[in-house]
Amino acid sequence: MDKRKKTAGFSLLELIAVIVILGILSVLGFSKFMKLRKETRIYAVKQLKSNMKTAAWLCNIKVRQLNLPSDAKVVEDKDLSGKIRLVNGYPASLVDLTNTMTQEGYEITGKTLHLKGRAECGVIYKSANKIGETPEFIPVFTGC
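and the corresponding structure tokens:
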């Protein structure tokens, strides 16, 4: 009868192997998570661009509904959050445009509406300067 002590547990080599494998998996998971966060911010900018276009379009429809001339400089309406300055029937500036929409989580820097804390991750608004022209919405993804 063999009366050797039975040892319970793992050898040092087995523990080191498990730690190395867990380290590799965590690095891969973290990089995938960071890529997912960037993709989420890019999607948020694309959605913001769509929202800005819709807000400008709705403002233009309101101008037409009120039978204002195409060269009207201001529209005032409770649906548009008060006075909105106009150029060719569209909001004259980014500030005027954002007065027509809710934009929690965003900031304005110059002509760009961007994600808070990320000045290079947003949408640039260029107003319609010529008759018959519509505003431009240029997405910026460099800082996402």
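(Above: one complete record from the training split.) The chain has a mean pLDDT of 84.
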